[in-house]
Amino acid sequence: MPGIAGGNAHAAGVAGGALGWALIAAAPFVHGRLQRRRAVLVSALVSSTSLLLPIWLAAGDLGGRSTGLIAVQALMQLLAAVGFGDRYRRHGEDLDQFLCVAATLTLFASLGLMFTPNAVPTDVARGDFLVLVAHGVLLIGLWRAIKASELGRAVAEERARVAREIHDGLAQYLFQISMHASMLEGGADPAATLPRLKEAAVAAQQEARYAILALSSAAGRASFDSALRRYVDVLTTDGELEVDLAIDPAINLGPDEQIEIFRIVQEGLANARRHADAHHAWVQIGERAGNRYVSVRDDGEGFADDVAGAGQGLRNMRERAASIGGALSLRSAPGRGTSLEVLLRV
Fold first, then answer.
1. Could you tell me if residue 223 is inside a domain?
2. 50-72: pLDDT as tens digits
3. Which residue in 35, 61, 219, 329 is a FRET match for 209, CA 20 to 30 A apart?
4. DSSP for 305-316, written as a single string
């Protein structure tokens, strides 16, 4: 009785596996709208059940049942390997290649069970090790897919932010250029209008460079370190502000953290240049007392504590720090410069 019960449980497990692989095998061949996909999946479920049930009933003994079901499972795994391999060839999706490898490994495991079945269903077969490896491959593929989706979400959010900033910054400078050009056409004094036109054009060019650098960092086309150094190089080209940048190479920042830290440093240096009349600034990214930190200091004019919380720029930096689980602190005093720091969880 225990042997029969164990055999029935084993055969039921194989049947469930075959049914699951039938649904997986249908996935790479599904196209079209969501309603169509649901219809295909439902059809695959019904047809797989209809296919497995006769095999289950037709097999005369437990070994025959298991062998027949394993054969069906191997067929489904073959279809899944072919389907995901073809989809990876056509679309280059990272997850598809891991699904293809996992399906191939489990296919060889099923073939091994078919041609060299276990004497006792509860014994561990060599093919079980292939199944274990396949599960590891699936975990790696899913982990990579989750990380890619996080980066994609971060990129989409940052693109939306940059679009808003272009609207509020670059668009305004372009409007000023257009307005000054119209004034020149209307007979305005060139001596008074041309300097303003040139100033607006320079500001628009600089704003466009900042947006390009931010998008390059967000999209992963440039590493965080190189994008931040390029931004500092652009900012200090005219010699009005000197910036010392120190980044600990051992510090690991996630995609969301890279984007928000880039923009916080950009905002802090922009404030030092435009509003604080600073000549020197220091940027440090490292680890202290078990916490990662980002520090931006300048030797500018500073301001009193009663106005430390004012300004949209500071509110934006606090929101960016909070969005990645960090805390922003600010210290400033008239004539003693400004120092802001963001602490991040390790």
1. no
2. 555 555 554 444 444 466 667 77
3. 329
4. GGGTT-SHHHHH
Q: Are residues 147 and 246 in the same domain?
A: no
Q: Does residue 41 have a pLDDT over 80?
A: no
Q: How many domains does the chain have?
A: 2
Q: What residues make up the domain containing 328? A: 239-346
Please give the pLDDT value at position 252.
85
Predicted local confidence at residue 297, as pLDDT: 93
Q: Which one of 128, 151, 174 terminates a domain?
A: 151
Residue 40's pLDDT is 56
Instruction: Enter the tokens of residue 235.
Output: 């900012």
Tokens of 230: 């390029």
- In tens, the pLDDT along 136-156 reads 888 888 888 877 777 777 777
Same domain (yes/no): 143, 243 = no
Largest CA distance in the chain: 105
Give the per-residue pLDDT at 45: 55
Alpha carbon of 171 to those of 64, 86, 211, 324: distances in Å? 74, 46, 12, 29
CA distance 241 to 222: 24
Contact assessment for residue 78 and residue 107, using Cβ atoms and an 8 Å cutoff: yes
* 133 in the same domain as 24: yes
Instruction: Express each pLDDT in 207-234 by its tens digit.
Output: 777 667 666 655 554 577 887 888 888 7
Per the domain annotation, does 230 fall within a domain?
A: no
**Structure tokens belonging to residue 341:** 């720091």
Instruction: Say if CB 321 and CB 294 are below 8 A apart.
Output: no
Residue with tokens 């509020």: 168
**Where does a domain end: 110, 126, 151?**
151
Alpha helices in the chain (DSSP H): 2-26, 34-58, 62-91, 94-115, 126-168, 170-185, 190-218, 224-235, 255-274, 312-323
Identity at 233, one-letter amino acid code: D
Q: Are 81 and 28 in contact (CB under 8 A)?
A: no
Tell me how far apart the alpha carbons of residues 27 and 39 are, in angstroms, rounded to a whole number.
Answer: 12
Quick one: 245 and 147 in the same domain?
no
